[in-house]
Amino acid sequence: MLVLPAEVTQSQAETCLALLRTAARASREGEIVIDAAPLERFDSSALAVLLECRRDCLADGKRFAVAGMPPRLAELAALYGVANLLATQAPEPAPTPD
Description:
Elements: E1 2-3, E2 7-8, H1 10-26, E3 31-35, E4 41-42, H2 44-59, E5 63-67, H3 71-79, E6 88-89
Parallel strand pairs: 1-3, 2-4, 3-5, 5-6
Helix pairs in contact: 1-2
């Protein structure tokens, strides 16, 4: 699972996209899941980063999903009409102590 940083705004978008692209291309997994739960500060650039990652993954023959999308980001995706492109995946539950 790839993880977004706490902040993705226009000033961080290019660097964030480059890091995610590199990691996604290096992955041998058939599905790339990006964990968006750490996002605290973001603008529409975060959606642009996710959509570009999705485009790259699909071009590489990989499935793409976003886990832990913050509600505000989901609302923004719906507002822009791209929510259906960012398939969401429920976050994995934390392991319970035995």
